[in-house]
Amino acid sequence: MTRRSGRRQFIAGSAALSLAAIAPSRVRAQAWPAKPVRIIVGFPAGGLTDVLARAYGEQLGQKLGQTFIVENKPGAGSMIACAEVAKAAPDGYTFLFTISTAINQNRVLYKKMPYDPDKDFTYVSGFDSGHLPLAVAAGVKAANMREFVELAKRERVTMGNYSAGSYPHMVAQQLNKLYGTQVEAVHYKGESPMWTDLASGQITSALGSIGAMLPHLQSGKVRPIAVPTLLRSPRLPEVPTYAEQGFKEPVFVIQGWIGMFGPAGLPRDIVNRISALNQEAAETPRISALNQNFGLRAKPWTAEEFEKLNREVGPQWVAIARELGVTLD
Question: Which helix (H) or strand (E) is 63 found in, with range?
Answer without folding.
Answer: helix 48-64
